[in-house]
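Open question from group meeting: does this chain pack into something compact, or does most of it stay loose? Before anyone orders reagents, we agreed to write out a predicted structure and look at it together. Recording both the input and the output here so the notebook holds the full record.
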Amino acid sequence: MPDATVSSEVVEGDSREIILDDSSAWKADLIIMGARGRRGLSRIVLGSVSQTVLLYGSCHTLIAHAQKAGQGLQIKRILVPVDNSPHSQNALEWLSRTPWAPGSEIKLLGVVATLAEEYSDPANPIYSSSIEHDWEKAKAATSEYLAQCKTEVATKFPDCKVTTEQVEGDVADCIIKNAEAWNAQLIFMGSRGNHG
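Structure tokens returned:
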């Protein structure tokens, strides 16, 4: 990027705090950082700098994972978890302003929490029926919202393949499993913007 201004700085201290404080003070629009890919106990004990920045940063964050051998840097498989929330809508707006290469695949994923068995109360069938009715309404609303988003994204990117999928379960778990099974190169989603 010959037209960009590049500067560097070395700072001592806790990397999480420094990245969050510096990006906020400098009014960064985007933080790009790598992830070590720790899993399980090591992630719990050692923590994750990228996860902390993602959760508590004041701007967009791109977390890059190591590329597989022979895999180029061009991103052509984009997974977009969506729900009808402001942070999800912000992600869709940002997605629509990003130039994706023709032939890219954009998959919109809707996740509905599983209807837990503990919600059913044999002593109160009316209560159980009401919970199940609300759950069915949530599934229908998610399906309708996915269809609406697909129309908007496909209109914006006519040269891309846009698909949808609706699944049930824990949201974070479903997103991770779906991304791995679909071989997503990028997960594109909104953040609630937690602070403090």
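Observations to bring back to the group:
The helical segments are 15-25, 40-46, 49-56, 86-96, 125-156, 171-182.
DSSP finds six helices and six strands in the chain.
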